[in-house]
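COMPLEX REQUEST
Ligand: EPU
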Amino acid sequence: MDKVIITGGKRLKGEVEISGAKNSALPIIASSILSTEECILKNVPLLKDIQTIQRLLECMGARIQRDGYTLNVNAKDLKSCEAPYELVKTMRASVLVLGPLVARFGEARVSLPGGCAIGTRPINLHIAGLQRMGAEVEIKHGYVEVRAKRLKGAKIYFDISTVTGTENLMMAAVLAEGVTVLGNAACEPEVVDLANFLIKRGARIQGAGTDTIIIEGVSKIRGDSYEVMPDRIEAGTYLVCGAITGGDVTVSRCIPSHLDAVLMKLGAAGIKTEVSSDSVRVIADNGISAVDVRTMPYPGFPTDMQAQIMALMAVSRGLSVITETVFENRYIHVPELRRMGANIKLQGNDAIVEGVKKLSGAPVMATDLRASASLVVAGLVAEGKTEIQRIYHLDRGYERLEEKLSRLGADIVRVS
Ligand code: EPU
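STATUS: Structure written out below.
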């Protein structure tokens, strides 16, 4: 199995271009199911998770062609409304086909995703929302089976802010009869990106990006072209890579306002940043101060950056408390960072990180994408070699990681 070997200690310098956002591209690709017309999607990153959703749509009968970063998706002849266990178990976001399938065909059979490394991650709120819209739902043989002649607009309030839950119900509501109001909706930029694409195709949606989204159902959603927004988590990860190596890194083709919470924490840690309209430069020449971080739904500090900021705090001056509030078990990276010499104690949802002068390279692995990213971040400053195994997790969410980091001056190779 492939692994990545990093020899730490190189100061990163230069510019890195950010790819399209994985978590925008996934619902946007799923939304092509809503129409019989072709969708032309640009800036779709070359990632394992994107291949998975592509395979899922293809096995339902969609025709998909990739040309570089452009994906042509035609769901006209979709013949199956089933998302099989074999695919859903490899990627939970497969559940994003549920809303569009029910909206267009009045039925869907989607394998229930099980728990995953970072938490139990149920989809009860997706299901409850569809039921509020008049769908009949049965859980049978590990699958959720949903039926509805035509979904009806409804007022839906989410108990917990859920990103894919909001996206699924927004896609369901665009073809429903009447008005749907999603209360306590997720405000993440990925929700807004999906809404913008749906609006371009004839959907009537107001309020995306706020906690109340109002969707007036229409009878048809067209095909169209759309450019997926840049990946804010990939951007944040490279900023942290620059910061931890005392580097000077410009992260380009990103949307700086999506990174406000991350930039604020970097600033508080004594790391200088310069923001332009579509890039952020990080200049780290004065060490790293300890800061406390609490993950929250957007616009709070993203849970998808928690592991990477923890690696940074592991070599800071002082003590920081990192609190994970979104997922119940997102500290898989902690034992591995400890093996690299980090001083981290876990107390419930809090990780208490006492900065050490040096980390030391070690063979490590993680069972989650962002946990793996934090090991890369740590490996960049660790003394000696860090060997990261199970890198298929990195391939799910970071495009050409070794190439991008090598160009910045890191000593990183992938070996089979
Ligand atoms: N939740 C429920 N019931 C539901 C749905 C969610 O209890 O029906 C809970 C979850 O268990 C969790 C919280 O609500 O504790 C928030 O989960 P959310 O539904 O927002 O997560 P998600 O939609 O499954 C997306 C991203 C994740 C990211 C989270 C939080 C995609 C494809 N995935 O997941 O991305 O961590 O939002 O921002 O958009 C990643 O990219 O590495 C990743 C895990």
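REMARKS: The CA atoms of residues 171 and 232 lie 23 Å apart. The chain is about 30% helix and 25% strand.
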